[in-house]
Design goal:
The complex is a heterodimer of chains A (418) and B (343). Chain A has 418 residues and is of the alpha+beta class. Chain A contains 16 helices and 15 strands. Chain A has two domains: 2-133 and 296-363, Periplasmic binding protein-like II (D-Maltodextrin-Binding Protein, domain 2, 3-Layer(aba) Sandwich), CATH 3.40.190.10; 136-293 and 373-415, 3-Layer(aba) Sandwich (D-Maltodextrin-Binding Protein, domain 2). In chain A, the strands form five sheets. In chain A, strands 3, 4, 5, 6 and 13 form a five-stranded antiparallel beta sheet that branches. In chain B, strands 1-3-2 form a three-stranded antiparallel beta sheet. Chain B has 343 residues and is mainly α. The chains are: A alpha+beta (418), B mainly alpha (343).
Chain lengths: 418, 343
């Protein structure tokens, strides 16, 4: 019934659009096909926008998330991109560099209060903006901390590397857990750089040297990175975490009491709260250069080929209203991009069960390297982290990763902006 | 009449092949604003470059060998030599592939791309194990079901079933079977051994992962080759078997002197097809292990796709495809030569 209603509405809109010749059609691609809640919210925004003015009519085409990036690449190669694109934050520089996207011109005052991770800046220009962000925390239980007599870390005073080590050791020695720490090794792909490269950055290393983005030498194989590698490997060799995890353990292990700590995102937080009333979401430990977690999620931007960039920007600006930010947060549990939107969401308003994530995202969120080469660097980092977890020689693995990243940068003429 | 077919083959087989050869000599990217440039053989050099290096132990001022913490002779650090060392430009960017102790020091075989070398070795291991095993098992099954028994079609259907199911689905199912904690294989082994056998993480352990994938691949495609053998078996004239029976031939003699010679051409076909399919090992890897753990299941095709598509480096992916083409072509020619009709 609902689908019928939508088709009727769509047909009506299209019909109306052809009648009123002044209306320009803007196409939009979105990654959320198959998610009913998400589709409903985005469709609501589009309907509201189309009703609010007569110049533009937005049309939505949804793709499954797993096929979305491939579709954009294929669409771009075929010269067939929509007006409005949806882009995963760390991919944006690659698409901007490749000429898929153009800078987004919206009023800066509109995004002044947005979380830093939601603003897609590249080469000093805004290309994309997110209605939400995601954040990671160290999930545990109050009773666990008490039983192991550990201090509760705070945003102002997170655990130091030593405290974190002591916590893991205490959890392991208690013998009550299968593993002290659930890192989510089961989630391959972007999870590795998103979740684990902030550890490396907290050690003082990085995936690539961000001052030049011309090489990873020294950043990914310098002393800080070697220290990270040894620490990362010891988590597995000392039995604190498992290098191979199956998906079911990742999804249910913490709730089943198999892990004392779980490194997981806000999207899993409600499940953890359901499993235990005393679930705590702790900030990332500080390994020397400050506590860090990954930032940036899906964002909206304007395709380079759009004939009506001002219309596309107008739509994106329209979507940035607090009520839509709140809708997305209520619907799929993401962190609303502004404090005023957070106040509208039960989970994220002051005192809400997930409010802590808003603070985490604001205080610890660190962007993944903002460079077109990130797409490749993420894969290289994933392999290196996985190999080290399985016992590969740390120095040799990091050297090889540096060589691969540097070779890729050279092959692309340094990813110079056009 | 053949027009449409030829056009399709031209567009989807011949043209991509020549494009791949062309791309492999450039720095073509999947996504890039830069035009591709001709780079000669650099992609091939980057993939196949190798070097041999012998390192002698460090000596102190008096000429005595320096020992490390474990009392072993201390060697110069390899990464100091292979990383931007102006004295050894020929080894720049190379990594240790394997090494052995020789004399007082160690001899290293270095490779520009250790992962690709590992992928080549793994693919050859896979082919060398799968080709005889799958061919032999398929023949055994074909002999078993080539009988006039009631309900034999049920068995034929059962053996053939894995072939019909998509390899992606089969791979997913087998990753559940191989699971360390809940996997049926571990449950079975532990029940059979009364709990004495430790639970193995079949796909997570570098020493078992490739074996696990080989086993599963043999099982999956064995039914297909069984059908080919079966068709071969059914072309053998029954009069030959009757003659054999009259002469009092034993079962083995019947097989050796009637069945096997009659299957000659089928055997060549099965061998060549299995070999070519085995060189293309990809789906199982992509679904089950992604080349890990520690590169123990890297394969040539997986690397080609990983680089060409995942890392957006079409030129390197193309170069790998060309190398694979040369390998498969040479192996097929050798097979043709060895199985030729001797005049």
């Amino acid at each position: 019934m609902k689908h019928l209603k939508w088709s009727v509405a769509a047909v009506a809109l299209i019909g109306w659009g052809t009648l009123a010749s002044a209306t320009e059609t803007l196409t939009m691609w979105y990654h959320g096909a198959g998610n009913e809640v998400e589709s409903k919210i985005i469709n609501q925004i589009i309907t509201d926008f189309n009703a609010s003015q007569a110049d533009y009519a937005v049309e939505l085409q949804s793709f499954p998330q797993a096929a979305y990036n491939d579709s954009v690449t294929a669409g771009a190669l075929a010269g067939n991109l929509p007006d409005i694109l949806d882009v995963d934050g760390p991919n944006m520089p690659n698409w901007a560099w490749a000429g898929y996207m153009q800078p987004l011109t919206i009023d800066e005052s509109k995004i002044a209060t947005f979380l830093p991770g939601t603003k897609g800046m590249y080469n000093g220009k805004l290309y994309s903006i997110g209605l939400w962000d995601a954040a990671i925390s160290l999930v545990t239980r109050k009773s666990t901390l008490e039983a192991l007599s550990l201090r509760t870390p705070t945003l102002e005073q997170p655990w130091t590397a030593e405290e974190f080590e002591a916590a893991l050791k205490a959890a392991k020695d208690s013998g009550k857990y299968k593993y002290a720490l659930d890192l989510g090794m089961a989630w391959k792909g972007e999870w590795y750089p998103y979740a684990f490269s902030p550890f490396l950055q907290s050690f003082g290393g990085d995936i690539v040297d961000r001052t030049t983005y011309a090489s990873a030498e020294g950043a990914l194989n310098g002393d800080a990175a070697q220290a990270w590698g040894k620490w990362w490997q010891h988590l597995f060799t000392d039995g604190y975490a498992q290098a191979d995890q199956d998906g079911a353990d990742r999804d249910n292990g913490f709730g089943a009491g198999e892990y004392a700590f779980s490194w997981n995102g806000n999207w899993a937080a409600l499940g953890a709260l359901k499993a235990f009333d005393d679930t705590l979401f702790l900030p990332a430990p500080d390994f020397g250069k400050g506590p860090k977690i990954g930032a940036a999620s899906w964002q909206f931007g304007v395709s380079a080929k759009s004939a009506h960039p001002e219309g596309a920007a107008k739509f994106i600006e329209f979507a940035l209203q607090d009520k839509y930010l709140a809708d997305f947060s209520n619907g799929i549990g993401l962190i609303p991009a502004t404090p005023s939107a957070a106040a509208l969401v039960d989970n994220y308003k002051e005192g809400g069960p997930l409010a802590v994530f808003f603070g985490l995202s604001n205080a610890q969120g660190t962007l993944r390297p903002v460079t077109p080469g990130y797409v490749v660097q993420a894969k290289v980092f994933e392999k290196a982290a996985n190999d080290i977890a399985h016992g590969a020689n740390v120095a040799a693995t990091l050297d090889a990763a540096v060589d691969e990243i540097d070779a890729d940068i050279t092959k692309n003429n340094g990813y110079a902006a056009q | 009449m053949a027009g449409p077919a030829i056009a399709l083959i031209l567009v989807f087989v011949i043209a991509p092949f020549f494009l791949a050869v062309g791309f492999s000599f450039t720095n073509q990217r999947l996504v890039s604003p830069n035009p591709a440039e001709f780079t000669g053989l650099s992609n091939y050099r980057q993939l196949l470059g190798m070097g041999v290096l012998h390192l002698d132990p460090l000596k102190d001022a008096a000429g005595a060998v320096v020992l490390d913490d474990q009392g072993q002779p201390k060697l110069p650090e390899l990464r100091k030599i292979t990383r931007k060392n102006p004295d050894y430009p020929q080894f720049d960017g190379m990594r240790e592939w394997f090494s052995w102790a020789s004399g007082e020091g160690r001899t290293y075989v270095l490779a520009c791309d250790v992962v690709f070398m590992t992928a080549i070795i793994n693919t050859f291991i896979f082919v060398l194990v799968v080709a005889p095993l799958q061919g032999g098992l398929a023949l055994g099954l074909a002999l078993l079901i080539n009988q006039r028994l009631r309900g034999i079609n049920v068995f034929r259907a059962i053996y053939f079933m894995p072939v019909v199911v998509s390899i992606v689905v089969v791979s997913l199912l087998w990753s559940f079977i191989y699971d360390q904690r809940e996997g049926i294989l571990n449950n079975l082994l532990s029940a059979l051994s009364f709990g004495t056998m430790p639970r193995v993480d079949w796909l997570g352990n570098p020493s078992t992962a490739l074996g696990a994938i080989i086993f599963m691949s043999v099982w999956q495609a064995v039914g297909f080759h069984m059908v080919i053998w079966l068709s071969g078996l059914q072309t053998i004239s029954p009069t030959l078997y009757e003659a054999g029976a009259i002469e009092g031939a034993s079962k083995w003699q019947t097989f050796r002197y009637i069945t096997w010679p009659g299957l000659r051409n089928t055997a060549v076909l099965v061998l060549v097809v299995i070999t070519m399919q085995a060189f293309g090992l990809f789906s199982q890897i992509d679904v089950m292990t992604k080349g890990g753990p520690l590169d123990s299941t890297q394969t040539i095709v997986f690397q080609a796709i990983q680089r060409g598509y995942g890392k957006q480096d079409i030129s390197a992916g193309s170069a790998i495809s060309v190398i694979l083409f040369v390998i498969v072509l040479s192996v097929s020619l050798i097979q043709r030569y060895l199985t030729r009709e001797k005049a």
